[in-house]
Amino acid sequence: xxxxxxxxxxxxxxxxxxxLARIGDKWSVLVIVLLKDGSKRFSExxxxxxxxxxxxxxxxxxxxxxxxxxxxxxxxxIPPRVDYELTDLGRDVMxxxxxxxxxxxxxxxxxxxxxxAYDKRNKR
Amino acid sequence: xxxxxxxxxxxxxxxxxxxLARIGDKWSVLVIVLLKDGSKRFSExxxxxxxxxxxxxxxxxxxxxxxxxxxxxxxxxIPPRVDYELTDLGRDVMxxxxxxxxxxxxxxxxxxxxxxAYDKRNKR
Lengths: 124, 124
Prior knowledge:
InterPro entries (chains A, B): HTH_HxlR, WH-like_DNA-bd_sf, WH_DNA-bd_sf
Order of helices and strands of chain A: EEHHEHHEEH
Structural class of chain A: alpha+beta
CATH superfamily of chain A: Winged helix-like DNA-binding domain superfamily/Winged helix DNA-binding domain
Helix content of chain A: 55-70%
Distance between the termini of chain A: 39 Å
Pfam families (chains A, B): HxlR (PF01638)
Protein name (chains A, B): Helix-turn-helix transcriptional regulator
Number of helices of chain A: 5
Shape of chain A: globular
Number of domains of chain A: 1
CATH topology of chain A: Arc Repressor Mutant, subunit A
Keywords (chains A, B): DNA-binding, Transcription, Transcription regulation
Oligomer: homodimer
Strand order of the largest sheet of chain A: 3-5-4
Organism (chains A, B): Pyxidicoccus parkwayensis
């Protein structure tokens, strides 16, 4: 299978797809962007994102930690304090992510117009 | 909220997140890549991806069509023939998508190692 300029076996494509699935996820992108300037607590992330549920934010952070983008530090105070920060890999992914985000930003009105036209065509 | 180098209101961030959610989706990426060199029929896409269910591929193509990346053409033969091809927007998204795919390709072993280590730490 061809991915970009590369000819790749399909297991490599799937593995690249798995990496993309995580960093292309809407909440993951927002979390990575929010952690860009330093560590944050769970409650800060939740407040700054605004529309995310506690359950969804927990799942997103766990996924990012599992894939190696985010480090979770627990300070054993009462109640325990939990901080999240980007790892080197997490900072590294900011580069292609920024390119993608800038593209998405410049094309978002085009995508929104396409959605509206599609929904109008397919309305019963 | 800050996205990349930009200071953005959170509704714009969400709208960018919506764009990213589609093009970051694993199956969407594979379909865009497969359509790069020309139009393909549903059955060809399904065969070339291999592991995707009919239902999932249908949903993916519908999402890509709705967002304006893919054009669907029905030829009224018996049975009808359905072809899919990239639009200008779909070809345009290949540029940041390639950058992201190359990053994912170069880091996939690191991500896989992080996953294994996480699963080992969190095994009961």
